[in-house]
């Protein structure tokens, strides 16, 4: 019983699949029939070519079939274009047989039969057999036609040779005039060149349009412009990175976030800017390496310019013991900063307690200096050295971090009354330390290690440098 129920459940599905299969077979047969019918018509057309009657078919023909055949035969033989010619007429239907040399002669014979009085239709069975003729006449004819066309086009060529150079020189003149007018308004030489060429380009297009208009090739110009647009899109996708770097260089030239000689940090790279081209920016790192960074990378990342403002802030951390007086240590450090010639008094330095460490009170000191002249690392070294000496002279301890020390054999405890200790003179006179100089030989003259910016190149001689003067 269970099997019969399953069979009844599946029978609608089977019937549906069967009907679908029948429909697919019927569609396939109809498609094959539709495709076969044009093929048969084409085959029949290639065998014989029959012309439709150009007028109504008369019940009583005006001429007999024999007269029509004779008339058409005499005309075709008079041309001497056909071989094996045979013309037969049956009930006004003309049958043409034979061979000829060209398709035009075959078509002419059919047209002749159609225009003959009493002809109802023409069945053209003339075959074309092109004869091979070894002759230079076609080539000479083409050369003659080319010479005539050259003489006709020669005035247009002379006009083009006259107008296009004039348009080019006019565009150059407009470009130079635009550069002079933008000299005091746009600082970037690259941006001046781009704006000037943008203004001058339409001048050249006017001359090109005049030549094409006189030559009657305006439609060709439109086609070329459309093709150039498509090619430009294809090239844009193919050289997307180059286009992206070029646009980034253009925007950076307008915004000018840095200049030649600035010390910057971008994308984790720190160094001095030397030049910028349409593709990349050249940076000299502190290690002396030259690094080329793509302009798109610079434009997409955070740029930190250390030399955009002359005042730079530095800081260092000093830890003093918990037994020391913090205000006294702050005053000593402040006096060291005030006595150093490289530290600026405005903004005023700050000596602040930063945190309470495991064994020290950490004091962080903030100070300002001229970043264009003074090296940050050299000045920090000199200040740390001076602060350490001043704190030591004042008796302020600077203990190490707390740590655990284990003595495996124990520690010997001595009694003050021990005669061995009495014999030892443990008291030493305090040494008077020498005054600390502002800079040691290792620190040099504290001047910045960043090289001075080079003189900017001329925009005409070095157009790839987009930074321009400072």
N-to-C CA distance: 99 Å
Number of helix segments? 11
Mean pLDDT: 76
Largest sheet: 5 strands, antiparallel
Number of strands: 12
Determine the strand fraction and express it as a percent band. Answer: 15-25%
Question: Into which percent range does the helicity of residues fall?
Answer: 40-55%
Structural class: alpha+beta
Principal-axis shape equals: elongated
| Weakly predicted, low-confidence segments | 1-11, 33-47, 455-463
Write out the strand line-up for the largest beta sheet, numbering strands in chain order.
8-7-6-5-9
What radius of gyration results from the CA coordinates? 51 Å
Secondary-structure element string? HEHEEHEHHHHEEEEHEEHEEHH
